[in-house]
């Protein structure tokens, strides 16, 4: 008698991540200087590249192409957005300002944020590539898409550039989902900075739940007037649908996981989105020059698993992942790999962590998360529903 045939490894579409990318995004040259200032003080022999440089994304690209996760990835070519697509999130006046800046040879659009020759075409590619990634999910061609893009977008507001961001890629994708018939979209942003642009874009809407976990950095100037504090809950119909989770400096793997289980999971469960958008920045890692949180690959892997399970439970597995910050040229790529391993819900890690060694003190984050939970319970009606 023949032995029972061994079933082949599962190869359903949910077991792949569809990555959208276009190499034209490497042409956004942010220059050199003292960190992100573009300034040359004259007394330093070695000026560093702006943290948001193409090297970081080249490593993200290559680790997905040649790392152990590569068999789980399908590649798709991104495309530029057309101007009319941008008006779903940004005002025509703001878009015209950027078009004119490009025509004039570029300008500093706000502190640390440069529009140089090549930048505008890259920004259009980032926006269009994210829209294609979302459309792939909406059309049912695949459950999980990842837009590997730069320049990043989550600080860009409807009328204002901010924090290296020109166009709000995730915001445009959310609006596309709504315009395509989705009733509710949930955005979970784990970049170390407050996703203020996305929050502002949907601040008056109860159709988009924006949740941001970030370092408690507060406002950083005229381009970023928002504080990212718990009391920025949304306005009007949108009141209660912007949940800010500012975490103490040094919050690490266990603190982030605790915050997500205590605050993100119940909110998404009650909201029941039609599609989820997972906004990822590896600048919440322990080694990022632009953040003071302590996530390691293990933490990113755990977060990826939880987000995947939320998507499976509440949005029929439909999940768009959008790239934001992450400035350590090596570790950002490793942490991206770990995040996507988590999203794939693999039983064992594919890649070990080469550098995780900072200790974590959970005491502060547990206390802060408890007080945020109480604050939201007292003020956000939908969280208290059945
Ligand atoms: Zn960031």
TrEMBL record:
GO terms for molecular function: histone deacetylase activity; hydrolase activity; metal ion binding. Keywords: Chromatin regulator, Hydrolase, Metal-binding, Repressor, Zinc. Its cofactor is Zn(2+). Residues 50-341 form the Histone deacetylase domain. GO terms for biological process: epigenetic regulation of gene expression. It comes from the Eukaryota. Belongs to the histone deacetylase family. This is Histone deacetylase domain-containing protein. The lineage of its organism: Eukaryota, Viridiplantae, Streptophyta, Embryophyta, Tracheophyta.
């Amino acid at each position: 008698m023949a032995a029972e045939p061994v079933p082949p490894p599962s190869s359903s579409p949910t077991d792949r991540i569809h990555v959208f990318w276009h190499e034209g995004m490497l042409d956004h040259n942010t220059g050199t200087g003292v960190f992100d200032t573009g300034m040359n003080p004259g007394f330093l022999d070695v000026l560093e590249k702006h943290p948001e440089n193409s090297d970081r994304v080249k490593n993200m690209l290559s680790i997905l192409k040649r790392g152990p996760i590569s068999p789980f990835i399908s590649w798709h070519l991104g495309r530029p957005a057309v101007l009319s697509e941008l008006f779903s999130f940004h005002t025509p006046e703001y878009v015209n300002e950027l078009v004119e800046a490009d025509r004039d040879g570029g300008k500093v659009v706000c502190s640390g944020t440069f529009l140089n020759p090549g930048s505008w075409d890259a920004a259009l590619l980032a926006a269009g590539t994210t829209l294609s990634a979302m459309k792939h999910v909406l059309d049912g061609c695949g459950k999980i898409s990842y837009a590997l893009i730069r320049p990043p977008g989550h600080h860009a507001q409807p009328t204002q550039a901010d924090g290296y961001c020109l166009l709000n890629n995730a915001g445009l994708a959310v609006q596309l989902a709504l315009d395509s018939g989705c009733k509710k979209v949930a955005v979970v942003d784990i970049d170390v900075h407050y996703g203020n642009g996305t929050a502002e874009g949907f601040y008056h809407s109860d159709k988009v739940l924006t949740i941001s976990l970030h370092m408690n950095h507060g406002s950083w100037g005229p381009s970023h007037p928002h504080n990212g504090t718990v009391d920025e809950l949304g306005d009007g119909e949108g009141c209660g649908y912007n949940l800010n989770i500012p975490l103490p400096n040094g919050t690490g793997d266990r603190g982030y996981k605790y915050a997500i289980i205590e605050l993100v999971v119940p909110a998404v469960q009650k909201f029941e989105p039609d599609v989820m958008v997972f906004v990822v920045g590896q600048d919440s890692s322990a080694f990022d020059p632009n953040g003071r949180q302590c996530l390691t690959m293990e933490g990113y892997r755990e977060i990826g698993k939880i987000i995947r399970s939320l998507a499976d439970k509440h949005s029929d597995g439909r999940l768009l992942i959008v790239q934001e910050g992450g400035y350590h040229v090596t570790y950002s790529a490793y942490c991206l790999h770990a995040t996507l391993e988590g999203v794939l819900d693999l039983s064992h890690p594919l890649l070990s962590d080469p550098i995780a060694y900072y200790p974590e003190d959970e005491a502060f984050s547990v206390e802060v998360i408890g007080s945020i939970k109480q604050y939201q319970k007292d003020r956000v009606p939908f969280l208290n529903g059945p």
